[in-house]
Amino acid sequence: MKIAYILFNGITWLDLIGIYDPISRLKTMKYLPDLDWDLCSFENEISDNFGLMVSPQKIKQSLEFYDIIIVPGGLGTRTLRLENDFIAWLQTAQNAKFKISICTGSLLLGAAGFLKNRKATTNFQEYETLAPYCSEVLSGRIVEDRDVITAGAVSCSLDLGLYLCKKWAGIEAMKEIRKRMDYFPSEF
Questions:
Q1: H/E/C letters for each residue in the chain?
Q2: Would 22 disulfide with which of 52, 91, 160, 161, CB 3.0-4.6 Å?
Q3: pTM: predicted TM-score of the whole model, two decimal places
Q4: CATH assignment of 2-181, among 3.40.50.720, 3.40.50.880, 1.20.1600.10, 3.30.565.10
Q5: Domain range summary for the chain, segments of one domain joined by +
Q6: Confidence of residue 184 (pLDDT cuts 50, 70, 90)
């Protein structure tokens, strides 16, 4: 299984790290030893609104060979959803088995057409912005509708990471990863 983490300027790093940590443990703890991922972007360097920079591994390369794309949120999503070149690049992931977002990353999934006829969620402050892209906006922390999984605001990123651990490797894997992280949220 190969994941593309989608990076962009104006990202909220906690959206990425919150999901990245539990998912990376699926590999390091040998639940999914064949799991692999890349940090993918449309730009050479990525920074959040405070200047923390990361250099992605794959730049402007097609996303067609990834099984999963994970799109974090951040203030950058509000304008990026209107940038045709970026959205066309994101659309190269149309055959991915799962399209996943955290917070306002769902706006990018929506702009790419991946939320058509699907239920989704996003940051509570952006429900109206998400509405034209999907069949129904829900307020749940995690919403799964066929091949799309969306999560609400930034604090949902850890919950979504554990949710995916459970989905892909089973409840025992999720429980052990949660224990190692010393993270005990309400059940989902």
A1: CEEEEEECCCCCHHHHHHHHHHHHHHHHCCCCCCCEEEEEECCCCEECCCCCEECCCEECCCCCCCCEEEECCCCCHHHHCCCHHHHHHHHHHCCCCEEEEECCHHHHHHHCCCCCCCEECCCHHHHHHHHHHCCEECCCCEEEECCEEEECCCCHHHHHHHHHHHHHHCHHHHHHHHHHHCCCCCCC
A2: 161
A3: 0.96
A4: 3.40.50.880
A5: 2-181
A6: confident
